[in-house]
Amino acid sequence: QVQLQESDPGLVKPSQTLSLTCTVSGGSITTNVYYWTWIRQPPGKGLEWMGCIASSGITYYSPSLKSRTSISRDTSKNQFTLQLSSVTPEDTALYYCARSITNTWDIWGQGTQVTVSS
Fold first, then answer.
1. What is the pLDDT of residues 56-87, one digit of tens each?
2. Among 7, 4, 10, which Cα is nearest to 117's?
3. Do the beta carbons of residue 2 and residue 109 sit within 8 Å?
4. Nearest to residue 112, comparing CAs of 99, 96, 100?
5. What is the pLDDT of residues 8-43, one digit of tens each?
6. DSSP per-residue codes, the chain
7. Among 77, 84, 1, CA closest to 40
8. Which among 49, 26, 37, 8 has a CA at the least distance from the CA of 100?
């Protein structure tokens, strides 16, 4: 069974780059038709799709975050990584990685809390 696990960056200072890694077990991130996704939920707000990387390696980003977001992968480690630059306290959120197929997020990591504070 496929499982996803986010890394834990903890506290990040304003203006720094947030880096999160999602480790996938039980299945390959290069398997066709899946999209490997980053989603976040700020306190008191709804879920926000940030972007994803397809099994082909093509990346897609939310227009509102595109200028600050980069998603990459390491197929040898079966991991994909989110980098969010120039973070502010507004980037404080619970961050999730998830697997997506046909616009459905069917498998989620447990989530990791990221706090941006000086």
1. 999 999 999 999 999 999 999 999 999 999 99
2. 10
3. no
4. 96
5. 987 899 999 999 999 999 999 998 889 999 999 999
6. --EEEE----EE-TTSPEEEEEEEESS-TTSTT-EEEEEEE-TTS--EEEEEEETTS-EEE-TTTGGGEEEEEETTTTEEEEEE-S--GGG-EEEEEEEEETTEEEEE---EEEEE--
7. 84
8. 37
